[in-house]
Amino acid sequence: MERNRNEGGVVEDAVVLTFSRPETTSAVTRGAARLASALGFAPLLEVGLPNGRRADIMALSPRGQIVIVEVKSGLEDFRADRKWSDYLPFCDLFYFAVAPEFPRDVLPQEPGLIVADGFDGAVVREPPINSLAPARRKALTIAFARLAAMRASGVAT
C-alpha cells in the first residue's frame, strides 16, 4: 500500500499490484487470444513452426490468413529475445502483444501491436500484410488443423 498526496494535499491510499513475469505472460497471452477470438480468428497457443521456433499464439482468420502473435512480458523479455523476424516467413500478419504498462516506444514499428491484459486486448497498430506462398499456406493450415484436432481430442497438448 502506498500513500500519496493529491493536489489538494489530501493523503490517499493506493494499492500497487506487481505481477511476476510468468503471470504477466499468461495474462497478456489470454487477453490477446480472447481478442483474436472476438475478431473472428481461431487461436492456438504454443504452436511449433517448421524452423523450430514456437509461436506464442497462432491464429487462423475466417479468410484463411495466418496470424502469429509474439507475447512480450516486459522490457527484459523483449531485449533478450530478438528472434521475432524468424516468425515472418510463417504468417501473413505478425503482432507483438504487450501489457498496458510496457514501454511501447522500444518496439519496432513494422509489426502490428496488441495491448492486452488478462481479460481482453486491443489492436493499437495493424501490421503490413505479408502474403504467404500458396504451398506454404496449405502446409501451415493443415498442420494448424491437425494440431487443433489433436488438442481437442486430448491426444496432444
Kindly describe this structure.
By secondary structure, the protein is α/β, with parallel strands linked by helices. It has a single domain, classed as Trna Endonuclease, Chain: A, domain 1. It is built from three helices and eight strands. The chain has helices spanning 21-38, 75-80, 134-152; strands at residues 2-5, 11-14, 42-48, 54-60, 66-72, 93-98, 112-116, 121-125. Strands 3-4-5-6-7-8 form a six-stranded mixed beta sheet. A hairpin with a 5-residue loop joins strand 3 and strand 4 (54-60). The protein starts with a strand and ends in a 5-residue tail after the last helix. The mean pLDDT is 91.
Question: How does the SSE layout of this entry go?
Answer:
Layout: E1 2-5, E2 11-14, H1 21-38, E3 42-48, E4 54-60, E5 66-72, H2 75-80, E6 93-98, E7 112-116, E8 121-125, H3 134-152
